[in-house]
Amino acid sequence: MTMLGGVPILAAEEKPAAAPEGTTNYKGETPPVNVGVIGCGAWGREILKTLSTITFAPVVAVCDHYPAYLRRGANLVPKAEKYADYKELLANKDVQAVIVATPSHLHKEFVLAALKAGKHVYCEAPLATTIDDARAIATAAKKHPKLNFQPGLQNRSDKQIVNLIKFVRSGVVGTNLCGRAQFHKKMSWRIATSNPEREAEMNWRLMNATSGGLVGELGVHQLDIANWFYSATPVSAEGVGALSHYKDDGRDVFDNVSATLRYPNGIYFNYEATIANSFDGEMGMFFGSDAAIMMRERRAWMFKEADAPALGWEVYAKKDQFYKESGMVLKAGATKQDAQTAKAAASDVVDEKSGLQYALENFLINSYNLGAGVKDFLDTYGEGSEDDLKAFLKEQGKNREPAADYQDGYEATATAIKANEAILKEGKLEMGKEWFQLA
Fold first, then answer.
1. How far apart are CA 82 and CA 103, in angstroms?
2. DSSP assignment of 341-379, as one string?
3. Which residues touch 23 (CB under 8 Å, ≥6 apart)?
4. C-alpha dihedral, 43 to 46 to 47 to 53, nearest 10°
5. Alpha-carbon torsion, ordered 347, 175, 184, 300, to 10 deg
6. In whole angstroms, what is the distance from residue 182 CA to residue 259 CA?
């Protein structure tokens, strides 16, 4: 037998103490930050529902150019102003922060305009469907350091995943070897309507001209975890794909894809997705010389090699069963021994918050704190010097709640775009460092 078992890696309540890198000690609630939401489609409405659970997230404005979507979004926030033109929403001085939940290929126009209007911006992932648009968004965010920009990479804020990355960074997996992730869910991805022109607009995901494909629209989050896990960006991508099942409805986006990303130091990562079969759902695996990590449904387990160094807490561990292996429960947030004596198995532990709620909460907390800090800075120094501002922003960043930034968003988006290009070409693409650099 070569494995010692799986360790569910769980986040628990933190004790009052200095927060290690990647964790948070935030316990209170930020003052209200007035939110405007652009895009009231299915995901935009999910965002509106989630915002309703956050006490400091009053939605004061919603926008969608499609009347039916605008009505459905407005029904969720009846006190909000309703706009068919996003420029009118941005002109509303009550709106402090904007959430862009439009189709991916349209993000650029809204994000650039919102930043220019002085709004904090949360932009859904991927940032865009082309490198040029993604770079334009990230560069604009970089040039507005007094505004908080956060891409919708929820895992970067999710307490469960943040805890996992902290655990991984402790070196417990040994030498990184390889990884893989998958998304399997049978769904047509098509939205039906009686209006042919509107149907074409609503089904932007199905056409390569407007879509990032399965790897872009679905895989960007799992590819971001790979970048985060390895603290690197890929050096090449190789892919294949096919339109195997949904052949007769006019789409040209593949319904079945696979890509291999190579990272520095010989690491490679495989991603596959299909919307024609649901077996085995969504998962991720990372393999090291001392242990493997399995991720499912915001939980993670460690499978430790028999010859790996002792961690010192195995004797206390709560165990779960996985096929032929029994796994050890890991619970973060206190001492090592406390963490291992959890009374409940991983399957019994439910996080009352979703990844989206963590992401939106942290976006608003960081937006308020940055805005308040900038006001204090301006009151003290006026515009100040560039060096003064950099020093202030560096200090401000120390108290930032876990969240993706523009660089994370750009790197994840560029990774997904190049992987999709490799899939469409059914070949290999080199990915130089210049792909991931911003001016």
1. 19
2. --SS-GGG---SS-HHHHHHHHHHHHHHHHHHHHHHHHH
3. 14, 162, 163, 166, 402
4. -170
5. 10
6. 10
CATH of region 9-15+157-348: 3.30.360.10
Structural class in CATH, domain 35-155+355-407? alpha beta
- Contacts of residue 195, Cβ cutoff 8 Å, sequence gap at least 6: none
Per-residue pLDDT of the chain (439 residues), as tens digits, is 344 455 566 654 443 334 444 444 445 568 999 999 999 999 999 999 999 999 999 999 999 999 999 999 999 999 999 999 999 999 999 999 999 999 999 999 999 999 999 999 999 999 999 999 999 999 999 999 999 999 999 999 999 899 888 888 888 899 999 999 999 999 999 998 888 889 989 999 999 999 999 999 999 999 999 999 999 999 999 999 999 999 999 999 999 999 999 999 999 999 999 999 999 999 999 999 999 998 988 888 888 898 999 877 666 666 666 766 655 555 444 334 444 444 444 445 567 899 999 999 999 999 999 999 999 888 888 877 888 888 888 888 888 999 999 999 999 999 999 999 999 999 999 998 888 999 8
Domain range annotation of the chain: 9-15+157-348, 35-155+355-407
